[in-house]
Amino acid sequence: MSSFEKKFDHLKMSLRDIQSATKHFADENIVGQDGFGNQYKGQLLLSSGQLIDILARRLDRRYGQGTKEFQTEIMMLASLKHPNLVSIVGFCDEKIIINKYEAKGSLAQYLSDPVTWTQRLQICIGIGRALSYIHYDKKTQF
User: Where would I find the Protein kinase domain in this sequence (predicted)?
Assistant: First the structure.
């Protein structure tokens, strides 16, 4: 078992659970795309019995990402805990990362709705705090 597997084993999920949550990666559950590939919305039943909304990001090698980028993404998401950053729920060996689904979507989607200047200022402050956390408070090597 590699050091990566040992450190992040607690985040591993079964492909079967992810397929069930996303209705086998049904096209109607696609909510976006990023540098990883398609993003699928779903509902996942946790071992605690809690049902949560998730975003399953399935690696598509056509986008130029591979195992190294997949593992780096997991390491970053697992180590960064901030209210203005997306949270990781888990991953599976089939190169799928599970994040907590944010109902407002991406920042670009959120800003496409009518937003007041006060809301825009609050968003900018939140982004600034998240960036400060990543680059100064957390002392990461990302």
Answer: 25-142
